C-alpha cells in the first residue's frame, strides 16, 4: 500500500491538532471524517490515504480514521487521487 492524496474539503476539527475532511465517494455519497491534522494538506485540500487498488476508473483507499458512517475503506473516482508530492 502506498500513500496517495485524496482531493477533499478540509475544515477545523473538534479538538486541537484535529482536522475534518469531506469528499465524494464513487457512489456519489458525501463522506466526512475527523483525523489528526498531519493527514491533511489544508493549503491544497488533500487527505493522505492508503491506495489499496484501482480498477475501472475507481480507486479503493483506506482512510486514516473511520468516516462518520463507520467506513474505513472506501471507493472514490480515480481522478480524485494523486501521487504524493515529495519535498
List the helices and strands and how they pair.
Blueprint (H helix, E strand, L loop, with lengths): L1 E6 L1 E4 L5 E7 L5 E7 L3 E2 L4 E10 L2 E5 L10 E5 L3 E3 L4
Antiparallel strand pairs: 1-6, 1-9, 2-3, 3-4, 5-6, 6-7, 7-8
Looking at this protein, list some descriptive labels.
87 residues, 6-stranded antiparallel β-sheet, 3-stranded antiparallel β-sheet, mainly beta
Q: How would you describe what is shown here?
A:
Helices cover 0% and strands 56% of the residues. It has strands at 2-7, 9-12, 18-24, 30-36, 40-41, 46-55, 58-62, 73-77, 81-83. The protein is built from no helices and 9 strands. The chain starts with a strand and ends with a strand. The chain has one domain. It has 87 residues and is mostly beta strands. The strands form 2 sheets. Strands 1, 5, 6, 7, 8 and 9 form a 6-stranded antiparallel sheet that branches. The protein has a 3-stranded antiparallel sheet with strand order 2-3-4, with no helix packed on it.
At a glance:
With 87 residues, the chain is mostly beta strands. Helices cover 0% and strands 56% of the residues. It starts with a strand and ends with a strand.
